[in-house]
Design brief:
This protein is α+β, with helices and mostly antiparallel strands. It has one domain: YefM-like domain (YefM-like fold, 3-Layer(aba) Sandwich). It is 48% helix and 19% strand. The two termini are 42 Å apart.
Protein backbone atom coordinates (compact mmCIF):
# COMPACT_ATOMS: atom_id res chain seq x y z
CA UNK A 1 0.00 0.00 0.00
CA UNK A 2 1.38 3.34 -1.06
CA UNK A 3 1.16 6.45 1.12
CA UNK A 4 0.70 10.01 -0.14
CA UNK A 5 0.15 13.36 1.54
CA UNK A 6 -3.00 15.41 1.07
CA UNK A 7 -1.40 17.97 -1.24
CA UNK A 8 0.00 15.24 -3.49
CA UNK A 9 -3.38 13.48 -3.45
CA UNK A 10 -5.15 16.66 -4.54
CA UNK A 11 -2.63 17.28 -7.30
CA UNK A 12 -2.63 13.71 -8.63
CA UNK A 13 -6.15 12.53 -7.80
CA UNK A 14 -6.92 11.23 -11.29
CA UNK A 15 -3.74 9.14 -11.33
CA UNK A 16 -4.48 7.81 -7.84
CA UNK A 17 -7.97 6.80 -8.91
CA UNK A 18 -6.51 4.94 -11.90
CA UNK A 19 -4.14 3.06 -9.58
CA UNK A 20 -6.98 2.20 -7.20
CA UNK A 21 -9.10 0.98 -10.12
CA UNK A 22 -6.23 -1.38 -10.97
CA UNK A 23 -6.36 -2.95 -7.50
CA UNK A 24 -3.93 -0.84 -5.48
CA UNK A 25 -4.75 0.66 -2.09
CA UNK A 26 -3.50 4.16 -1.28
CA UNK A 27 -3.29 5.73 2.17
CA UNK A 28 -3.70 9.51 2.32
CA UNK A 29 -1.99 11.21 5.23
CA UNK A 30 -2.48 14.60 6.83
CA UNK A 31 0.71 15.88 8.48
CA UNK A 32 2.07 12.34 8.42
CA UNK A 33 -0.98 10.82 10.13
CA UNK A 34 -3.16 8.44 8.09
CA UNK A 35 -6.50 10.12 7.33
CA UNK A 36 -8.08 7.92 4.65
CA UNK A 37 -7.58 4.85 2.52
CA UNK A 38 -8.57 4.79 -1.14
CA UNK A 39 -9.82 1.39 -2.30
CA UNK A 40 -11.81 0.32 -5.32
CA UNK A 41 -15.56 0.15 -5.03
CA UNK A 42 -15.48 -3.60 -5.58
CA UNK A 43 -13.32 -3.99 -2.46
CA UNK A 44 -15.44 -1.67 -0.35
CA UNK A 45 -17.56 -3.27 2.33
CA UNK A 46 -21.01 -4.29 1.19
CA UNK A 47 -23.99 -2.75 2.95
CA UNK A 48 -25.52 -4.88 5.67
CA UNK A 49 -28.99 -6.26 5.17
CA UNK A 50 -31.79 -5.37 7.57
CA UNK A 51 -31.64 -8.88 9.03
CA UNK A 52 -27.87 -8.62 9.65
CA UNK A 53 -28.34 -5.33 11.47
CA UNK A 54 -31.11 -6.76 13.67
CA UNK A 55 -29.01 -9.84 14.48
CA UNK A 56 -26.06 -7.64 15.39
CA UNK A 57 -28.20 -5.54 17.71
CA UNK A 58 -29.61 -8.66 19.40
CA UNK A 59 -26.10 -10.01 19.86
CA UNK A 60 -24.96 -6.74 21.39
CA UNK A 61 -27.93 -6.70 23.76
CA UNK A 62 -26.94 -10.13 25.15
CA UNK A 63 -23.37 -8.96 25.82
CA UNK A 64 -24.14 -5.58 27.40
CA UNK A 65 -25.55 -5.69 30.90
CA UNK A 66 -27.62 -2.79 32.22
CA UNK A 67 -25.93 -0.53 34.75
CA UNK A 68 -27.36 1.27 37.75
CA UNK A 69 -28.23 4.36 35.66
CA UNK A 70 -31.68 4.44 34.04
CA UNK A 71 -32.23 5.57 30.47
CA UNK A 72 -34.08 8.63 31.75
CA UNK A 73 -31.08 9.57 33.93
CA UNK A 74 -28.73 9.15 30.97
CA UNK A 75 -30.92 11.42 28.84
CA UNK A 76 -31.00 14.07 31.55
CA UNK A 77 -27.21 13.83 31.94
CA UNK A 78 -26.81 14.29 28.19
CA UNK A 79 -28.96 17.37 28.25
CA UNK A 80 -26.84 18.92 31.00
CA UNK A 81 -23.62 18.36 29.03
Amino acid sequence: MDTVGTSEAKTHLAALLDRVANGEKVTITRHGVPAAILVSVSEGRAKLSHQEIVEGMRSLRTRVKPGPTSVKEMIEEGRRS
